[in-house]
Request: fold
Amino acid sequence: MHRTKVKVVEEALDANNTIARANRDDFDRAGVTVVNLMSAPGAGKTRLLERALDGLAEQGVRVGVLEGDVQGSFDADRLALLHVPVVQLNTDGGFGGECHLDANMVRSALPALPLDEIDLLIIENVGNLVCPAEFRVGEDARIMVCSVTEGEDKPLKYPLMFRACELVLVNKIDLLPHLDFDVARLEANLDQVHPGVARMLTSARTGEGVEAFRAWLATLGTRERAVA
Amino acid sequence: MHRTKVKVVEEALDANNTIARANRDDFDRAGVTVVNLMSAPGAGKTRLLERALDGLAEQGVRVGVLEGDVQGSFDADRLALLHVPVVQLNTDGGFGGECHLDANMVRSALPALPLDEIDLLIIENVGNLVCPAEFRVGEDARIMVCSVTEGEDKPLKYPLMFRACELVLVNKIDLLPHLDFDVARLEANLDQVHPGVARMLTSARTGEGVEAFRAWLATLGTRERAVA
Reply:
């Protein structure tokens, strides 16, 4: 009898990747481009979305949002005001709540999402700079939001997050005059862990840079149909 | 034969608590009071420590620091300049790095700590608003640092963290004039999840409130000897 030995490694991540691929297939069938939006707590993800999603419909991109939080629906309630479909996903089923979204959690939300009626799905992850980077959910692109109030050292301290993304939004730049923050130093740290990664300076409060971010999302959201 | 049924629940947390008690015993034997300092990434834990620890020796409190990070020793290097014993603990042994300290990680650092030569040990946890609250490490008190740049909603979105602490430091208040941040609203949210929890407004940058925080630490650090 022929015997094959299979090494069991990182089983949880393997299972996650299998489910992420199944999500990916469903997104492809529906022609939906998916963005995984990640940051530390309070970096301004939701406020950036409030600004950037407003106006995307006029550019022909129909958006949906999957809102990940440990508990509550504060952000989902805010985004629902934009009249886009929003689904809340809470991770507090475990002991104290999971600190990230995984592919299976996202999969459990798919039946509640009108995939055939949207072009772009934004998945707002749980605010955390460690674990979200380890779990693919079936997305096309990952965006990291880092706020200038967090300090220039974050790419060096949480490198996996900054390596695992296609775009870095440096947010809250309206506060730069009031901080000891060196944008050039942040960019150098960024290039050290992810050389040349695309980056934009934004302020969700003043709107600076939001148009460029909206255009980036619009390009992503229309890509699928351009290919088809 | 008499048979007893033992229900196996939350095994990982049970094991953690067992080790936390062993740590606690070691701290008690050495007469060391221990603080677990927690926050989101970039809330200002290290800078607050730089300010507050400077001057504690003059008040008769000998301090040591255990610095928890996913990787690197940026914060430990900063604190070593204060001429206090600092031990770096990196959590990146796992796939992408653990997002919190647990009792066993702290235990592994104990041999490197001069417990007999300090009165107060500060454990600076990994920047994260979810998992650190779930893992006791043998501490006497837990402190949550939240920055006013993170928004007033954080206690409602990450309630376990704000419930699991004895003191909340509301940091970066020097930025209040430049933010749409309502301190009263934060305090109301705080009272909703942890009624009456002690709180202090601080700015590690200007030094406002740091003296009160230092006094709080000094009281804690001399308690042990007062009892003995």
